[in-house]
Amino acid sequence: MRTRRLIVLISAVLIITALLPVSLSVWMAHQNATRLFTGELESFSARVMLRTTKVANQAEDALQRLEEINLTSCSREHLQEMRRVSYSHRYIQEILYFRGLQPVCSSLEGMKKSAAFPQPLAMTPKGYRFWYTAKSDLGIEHDMVALGSAHYVVMIDPESLIDVLPYGTRPINVALIGIKRNLVIASSAPLADNGWVQAIHTHQMQFQHHDIMYYITRYPALNVATLTWTSTTPLDQDWRRQLLYWLPFGGAISLLAAWYILRILRRLQSPHQRLLEAIRAREIVVHYQPILVLEDGRLAGAEALARWPQPDGTFLAPDIFISLAEQTGLITPLTELIVESVFADLGQWLQQHPDLHISINISATDLANPALPMLLEQQIAYWHLDAGQIALELTERSFADPETSAPVIAGYRKMGHAIYIDDFGTGFSSLSYLHGIKADRLKIDKSFVEALDYNNVTPHIITLAKTLHLKMVAEGIETPQQETWLREHGVEFGQGWLYSKALDKQAFIAWTERR
Ligand code: C2E
Ligand code: MG
Ligand code: MG
Questions:
Q1: Of 512, 465, 510, 472, nearest to 493 (Cα)?
Q2: Which residue has the higher pLDDT, 136 or 100?
Q3: Residue of higher predicted confidence among 95 and 171
Q4: Which CA distances in Å does 514 have to 289, 300, 349, 494?
Q5: CB-ligand 1 contact for 426 (6 Å cutoff)
Q6: Half-sphere exposure of 425 (CA within 13 A, CB side)
Q7: pLDDT value, residue 2
Q8: Is ligand 1 within 6 A of the CB of residue 478?
Q9: 4: CA distance to ligand 2 center in Å?
Q10: In this predicted structure, what is the pLDDT of residue 399?
Q11: pLDDT tens by residue, 274-304
Q12: Of 100, 134, 161, which one is at a domain's C-terminal end?
């Protein structure tokens, strides 16, 4: 069950890890394109600001120098000095000498008879007056920016404040905006619409209106702002270009992650992992097949056979998972689980029937597990049983290396357990082990029982067992004829579908009670 939940979890992670890098690369492509795009707008704005500051500084410098002039107002010398200052400051187009708001004389025209200036629109932080509506007297019909000190006003062409060329590849436009009245003081191109008006009064630095991206830099001291803008069409092209660059990365990472997680998933779904989980969850159960005394049909005991219940209600045959457990080293915990289950199922039943036994199948590997005899001893003590009530079935493979197996088997026998040689004659091993090892019973494999009519080996097995003083259990008895033949040939015990298949604990107890 745990594995299934893990699989669901990992599948979810798989989907996320596969999607994440791709989505991330799309996002990165977009971020990058936008970053490059706004970066260009931003740096252009910064350059415009540099230019504006440079022009403003020049105007301030000029005003400072003008205020230092100590000549008769509007005299020839005075006007000449004003002209000199105008020429040496190249952004200044005209200098006016003022009395209050009234221009008296000009660097261009000498004496002036023009109307008084309106009240300045702003005062700069350094205390200069600032206008941007005054029409120049140059005869050119466009607005001028004017900066004034106590006695002088310098006139600047607003275009010079924003006269910056964009470095980048895309055309960027810029406008100088008077914030108070949303007045476009100067602009490198006509503004498409009034979409910028609202944004300029907020704290937004960047906004998009229709297909145009705007960037705003504000100069609160002068109540002006620069507005730079460009079409977003190249952004979309850029975005696609970036995507071509990022998507293969994202795709590759996605694939790698998917491959890695699929590998984990496959391992989790592997039979080995499933068996491990089944053992941990104690899902594997034990069924019991009765063993009878052939002479009188009395119950002698039962063989414990492992069963793995599947979600569809069927049981997986032990031939499949026992060999899997043996190959993957899971047989040790599996055998311990089976032993514990036998006692949990039938400990009490065995206590009530001291003359009956349960035989448990043990693999060759189990012989090397020192915990197993301890477990048996402890369980037998717990249920107050006789060790003789638990027999151990070992296949010929377990006897293959008598040097190591013989002392362990002798140990079990000393504890009181009977040792059965299971599947006798099917292991293709030499019979030499029969000298070195002492066993108690020999199980005649069902293949020999099945072939009684035409296989003449069975009588020899019986003779051999008798010679070795081994009692016999015949497996796989399916017909009364087989039963009769085996009884007549001196086989003491038998098990098979003629009597019963392996039954679960309740069914087995019920079966024994019916007998
Ligand atoms: P086995 O120890 O020789 O067990 C006898 C097998 O013959 C069982 O198969 C049993 O169900 C089957 N059988 C009994 N009577 C008849 C019959 O009349 N006709 C037929 N056709 N078959 C019959 P099962 O339960 O499938 O077990 C197969 C083998 O798996 C066992 O052979 C045993 O070697 C192994 N095994 C089962 N449980 C365990 C276990 O807990 N531990 C270990 N190590 N091996 C186990
Ligand atoms: Mg067996
Ligand atoms: Mg057998």
A1: 472
A2: 100
A3: 95
A4: 15, 15, 15, 19
A5: no
A6: 20
A7: 64
A8: yes
A9: 32
A10: 82
A11: 899 999 999 999 999 999 999 999 999 999 9
A12: 161
Structural domains of the chain, count: 2
The pair of structure tokens assigned to 239 is 């975005």
Between residues 100 and 344, the one the model is more confident about: 344
Q: What are phi and psi of 74, to 5 degrees?
A: 60, 15
pLDDT band at 429 (very low <50, low <70, confident <90, very high): low
Considering only CA atoms, which residue is closest to atom 20 of ligand 1? 476
305 lines ligand 1 (CB under 6 A): yes
Helix/strand/coil for 448: helix
> Do 295 and 437 fall into the same domain?
yes
Which atom of ligand 1 lies closest to the CA of 363? 44
Q: Which DSSP helix (H) or strand (E) runs through 328?
A: helix 318-328
For residue 455, report the distance from its CA to the centre of ligand 3, in Å. 18
Instruction: Output 114 or 365, whichever has higher pLDDT.
Output: 365
Give me the amino acid identity at 423. Answer: D
Verify whether ligand 1 is closer than 6 Å to residue 369 (CB atom): no
The pairs formed by 317-321 with CB atoms below 8 angstroms and a separation of 24 or more are 321/271, 321/275, 321/284
| Rg value, the chain, Cα | 51
Structural contact between residues 310 and 316, judged by C-beta atoms closer than 8 angstroms:
yes
Strands 145-148 and 152-156: antiparallel
Q: Is 361 in the pocket of ligand 1 (CB under 6 A)?
A: yes
State the residue range of the domain holding 328. 272-514
497 has a pLDDT exceeding 90: yes
Residue 469 banded pLDDT, cuts 50, 70, 90: very high
Confidence of residue 428 (pLDDT cuts 50, 70, 90): low
Q: Is residue 43 part of a domain?
A: no
What percent of the chain shows pLDDT beyond 70? 97
The CATH number of residue 505's host domain is 3.20.20.450
- Cβ of 372 closer than 6 Å to ligand 1, yes or no, is no
> For a pocket test of ligand 1, which of 279, 361, 423 has the largest count of ligand atoms closer than 8 A to its C-beta?
361
| Contact between residue 326 and residue 365 where contact means Cβ atoms under 8 Å apart | yes
pTM: 0.61
Query: Is 239 inside a domain boundary?
Result: no
Whether 181 shows a pLDDT value over 90: the answer reads no
* Ligand 1 centroid to residue 449 C-alpha, Å: 14
